[in-house]
């Protein structure tokens, strides 16, 4: 799927409708549109009036049910930015085998067909530097995933992926080589997700450049496909499975701290990326002039542990990774090390580009439903960092289990649980502050939460 094809789809250009009918294309060239701020499509009808006053929690209702009866809720930040920079998408994806020679502009992406391999998709995007990148990602990533799955559909319907997608056998030992590499169908699906994130990142870069916009976003996507749950994460949002007797983390956060070694190694291989303004070494604190000539604790890209280094004048430069926890920053600029967008981002007052250090490739975790006996109250909880900043996995799991057990007869309990989680993390306003029930500071960030019941899954996907 080309970037130009996606642009035509978004601008209302020629695209084939189901049944072969086409929309007529505008005769004169159209300028690239500025991404329009909006809330998730499935929240249409929910008023966003006076979002600032009480940070009203918005959520899905019975009139717009989501796949599997999933619940969703969100709340805007406490005046950190003008807009809610989180975005969310939820839909059904149909995958067909792509016929050789089929031109891209002859395709119509059918998201709700039962004729083909069917998957279910949920995604959260947490924007920074504005909501534009998150809006584009919420519009495009599922199209990219559908296309990448269709490109390998011939392999994912096989018990073991063939060496050649065409089925041709050039070498009699091809099946043996595939087996020796332990390549399974789920590995091809993982590869399709990774490729989809890569292509979506390219789309965002070109769209943002064309519209003279800046910014980026994290991306957390869940895909249920052929009996397995794939969770792909690029950023600091999080997904956990809350099962009856355990919690299964389905994602890992990617921050300057967690990816320190990758970032330092890149700076070691390509020192010009730092333009002489930063040091790749990590120190417990920012070094001062009096530290020169002393041996101090440090870490380099090849080190899990700490060593001692004789401080030179060059070590006084600002560190590539600096700060701790939520205050950690990459090049003094970003608090995440993976995500989509940020192609135009530069370190303030320099020509140093941040994008080379950012990875758009997600880490994908897979959960096989065939290996678990899923219970009625087992759920996948996905949320942006606004929730996890103030609630740990155990807090969220305890609240989910208690709420669902107490509301077993409520047909909308998953939506209500999503709202309850957002309300708890948002806290209550006391004077000028937002506080949790235990008098700790609540989350001032945008908060978005999906609660996805696993017992309601469609078995034949």
UniProtKB/TrEMBL annotation:
Residues 69-454 form the PPM-type phosphatase domain. GO terms for molecular function: [pyruvate dehydrogenase (acetyl-transferring)]-phosphatase activity. It comes from the Eukaryota. Signal peptide: none annotated. Residues 1-68 are annotated as: Disordered. Residues 51-63 have a biased composition (Low complexity). CDD domains: PP2Cc (cd00143). InterPro entries: PP2C, PPM-type-like_dom_sf, PPM-type_phosphatase-like_dom. Gene3D superfamilies: PPM-type phosphatase domain. One of its GO terms (cellular component) is mitochondrion. This is Protein phosphatase, Mg2+/Mn2+ dependent 1M. It comes from Phasianus colchicus (Common pheasant). The gene is PPM1M.
């Amino acid at each position: 799927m080309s970037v130009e094809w996606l642009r035509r789809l978004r601008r209302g250009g020629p695209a084939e409708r189901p049944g072969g009918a086409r929309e007529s294309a505008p005769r004169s060239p159209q300028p690239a549109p500025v991404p329009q701020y909006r809330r998730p499509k499935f929240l249409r009808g929910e008023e966003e009036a006076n979002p600032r006053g009480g940070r009203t929690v918005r959520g899905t209702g019975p009139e717009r049910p989501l796949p599997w009866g999933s619940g969703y809720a969100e709340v805007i930040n406490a005046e950190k930015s003008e807009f809610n920079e989180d975005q969310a998408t939820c839909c059904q994806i149909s995958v067909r085998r792509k016929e050789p020679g089929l031109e891209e502009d002859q395709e119509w992406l059918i998201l709700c067909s039962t004729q083909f391999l069917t998957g279910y998709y949920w995604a959260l995007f947490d924007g920074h530097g504005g909501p534009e990148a998150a809006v584009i990602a919420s519009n495009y990533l599922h199209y990219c995933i559908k296309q990448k799955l269709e490109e390998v559909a011939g392999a994912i319907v096989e018990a073991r992926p063939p060496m050649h997608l065409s089925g041709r056998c050039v070498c009699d030992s091809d099946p043996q080589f595939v087996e020796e590499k332990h390549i399974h169908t789920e590995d091809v699906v993982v590869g399709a997700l990774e490729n989809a994130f890569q292509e979506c990142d390219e789309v965002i870069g070109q769209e943002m450049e064309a519209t003279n916009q800046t910014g980026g976003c994290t991306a957390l996507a869940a895909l249920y496909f052929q009996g397995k749950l794939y969770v792909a994460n690029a950023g600091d949002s999080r997904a956990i499975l809350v099962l009856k007797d355990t919690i299964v983390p389905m994602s890992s956060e990617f921050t300057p701290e967690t990816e320190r070694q990758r970032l330092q190694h890149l700076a070691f291989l390509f020192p010009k990326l730092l333009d002489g303004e930063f040091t790749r070494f990590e120190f417990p604190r920012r070094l001062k002039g009096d530290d020169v000539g002393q041996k101090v604790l440090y870490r380099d890209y090849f080190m899990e542990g700490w060593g001692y280094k004789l401080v030179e004048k060059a070590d006084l430069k600002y560190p590539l990774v600096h700060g701790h926890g939520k205050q950690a920053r990459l090049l003094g600029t970003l608090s995440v090390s993976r995500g989509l967008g940020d192609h135009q981002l530069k370190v303030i007052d320099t020509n140093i580009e941040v994008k080379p250090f950012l990875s758009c490739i997600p880490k994908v975790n897979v959960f096989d439903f065939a290996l678990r006996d899923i219970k009625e109250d087992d759920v996948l909880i996905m949320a942006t960092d606004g929730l996890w900043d103030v609630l740990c996995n155990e807090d969220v799991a305890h609240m989910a289990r208690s709420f669902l057990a107490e509301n077993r007869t409520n047909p909308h309990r998953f939506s209500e649980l999503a709202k309850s989680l957002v309300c708890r993390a948002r806290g209550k306003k006391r004077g000028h502050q937002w506080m949790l029930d235990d008098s700790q500071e609540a989350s001032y960030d945008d908060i978005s939460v999906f609660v996805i019941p696993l017992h309601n899954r469609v078995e034949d996907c």
